[in-house]
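INFO batch 0412 | record 1 of 1 | parsing
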Amino acid sequence: MTALLAGAAAHNAGQYGVARSIWAGEAPVAPEADDADDQLLDGLAAFATAVTESRRGEWDAALDAATAADIELDAVDGTRVDLAPIERWLAAFGTDPEIAERSPPPRIAVDGDRPTPGALPLSAAVVVAGTVAAARGDDPEVVADALRFARRSEHPETTRYATFVRDYAAAEPSERAIVFERLSGLVGRQRRKEDDVSGLFD
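INFO prediction complete | emitting tokens
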């Protein structure tokens, strides 16, 4: 459920466009094999689209997306997501779209918890971080390599790579540049070590 969890965490942090990209299957660092229902992800992507379009003042597009989300989510059965708050928001939004300007959309619970980017498993944190990087114009390959290098450790979840990936995914917009610089520096040093070892056998 990597995409489900990553998107929920991004949404809960107010990164609605990032959540939409993840649920829509547009994350540059692809989630691992996912057992989430495609219809659920489609419905959540439409919900996130309604949120993002309403925040831009694109009311027709937002209402169309909300209708699509309602149809998709209504057909989902046995999900790990608490859909009731989302469905209530969609119903309220359909009759009074300006609700989006008065209050944020409901946070999303998965298996009873409301995930946040800084507390995700590494496999989900890299999906958020990679999508944030693409949106900002940073290099998502840095995030992908951080995952690759972390997995060489006996304890990937507690490596410096994992720490910086989570920090970047969770950072405030004003802090992201410096966090990415640190992550990029760490990854760059490991890349150079790889190149040096490779050069010995050329």
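INFO post-check: The chain has a mean pLDDT of 94.
INFO record closed
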